Amino acid sequence: MRQNARFADVQPIGLDVVAEAAGTDPDVLRMENLDTDVAPPPCAVDATTRALASGEGNSWLPLTGLPVLREAVAGELRTRTGLDYDPSRQIVITSSGTSAVMPVLLATTEPGDHVALTDPTYAGLLQRVRLSGARPHFLPLRVDGGYWRLDRDALAGVTTAAALLLMSPSMPSGVLLDRDDWAAVAETCARTGAYLIYDAAMERLVYDGHPQINPCRVDGLAERTITIGSVSKEYRMIGWRIGWIAGPAALMERIKMAVIYNTTVASGFAQLGAAAALTDPSGAGVAAATAEYRRRHDTVIEQLAGLPVVRAAGGWSCLVNAAALGLTAPELSSRLLRYGRVAATPMTAWGGTIAPDHVRLVYSCEPVERLTDLRLRFDAALTRE
């Protein structure tokens, strides 16, 4: 078979292998995959059901997304960023947030360009950088005060980059960038001419009273930022597969073309459900969901007290350092499933030198009641011969 250099360094995501090995055993804690059992907004379910019954949205057009959803996204972004995005020129609807990443990379980079990402980072971001023909430049995360923190010295050392591809809170670490971090990002973008590609999928899922800072509100970033959003995480609407891209109008012309030729159009039925969630006056349950995820996160941290687990500042997952336990991440993942009945993904494909030492624990689909024996499961995994 003919070789393809584009795939030379692309690694499998890993979570699907763990999920298959876990099977359907109800005793297994499902902490390998970013699903959730917290219900989506009822208004979104109702709107989608009505659309299916009436046929509304059963069309290829408009290729860039239904006006009602683009306007809803513009309203959402106005609240978050303080900016007035033109729904027709500056917003395009995509088939999920992750599928938005490749069109943005194709519009902002050339083959061989550097794209800076944190280590660890979401494999879906990292491997798309490689597939686009760009090259990842890793910015290591360090543990400081019990939380992951961005290494700003490493950021200051970036000399060439076409883009910085960042998420906050981020998968899989739960790192949250503060105002000083974003100011350092702005300085790097100005110095290198880079765009900021900002994955905002979990922006409001923040714990412990940490401030939620949108980078567009930081001096120097608004005009350089391309925002990728979705309804999957904050609104618990994973199966709808609806996302969006917003950015400078001139650049969005290229991005729209890449989106259209990649997927043509996102599901019209699902778009109507997404619009209902974004415009729900009650907030679509985001605050209540965040409180529930925090309860689960805190239970995980309490259960694993004394083990090398790092608190998340937000999001749906946290990381355990397998190397600090004398194991590789695949070894710890295997032992957790075999002896502890915990499905957890090794971070082999999720970074450079830091991520591969870790295993991810996702708590978004396991209620507190099922997490209360997590320590016993870990002990079984770590002590069995």
What keywords describe this structure?
385 residues, alpha/beta, Aspartate Aminotransferase, domain 1, Aspartate Aminotransferase, domain 2, eight-stranded mixed beta sheet, four-stranded antiparallel beta sheet, 13 helices, 14 strands, globular, Aminotransferase class I/classII large domain-containing protein
Structure description:
It is a single chain. The chain has 385 residues and is an alpha/beta fold. The protein contains 13 helices and 14 strands. The protein has helices spanning 15-22, 42-54, 67-81, 98-108, 123-132, 152-156, 179-192, 249-263, 268-278, 286-303, 329-340, 368-371, 374-383; strands at 29-30, 91-94, 114-119, 135-144, 147-150, 163-167, 195-199, 225-230, 243-246, 309-310, 317-321, 342-343, 345-346, 358-362. The longest helix has 18 residues, at 286-303. The chain folds into two domains: 5-40 and 285-383, Aspartate Aminotransferase, domain 1, CATH 3.90.1150.10; 42-278, Aspartate Aminotransferase, domain 2. Helix 2 (42-54) runs antiparallel to helix 9 (268-278) and helix 4 runs parallel beside helix 5 (123-132). Helix 7 links the parallel strand 6 (163-167) and strand 7 (195-199).
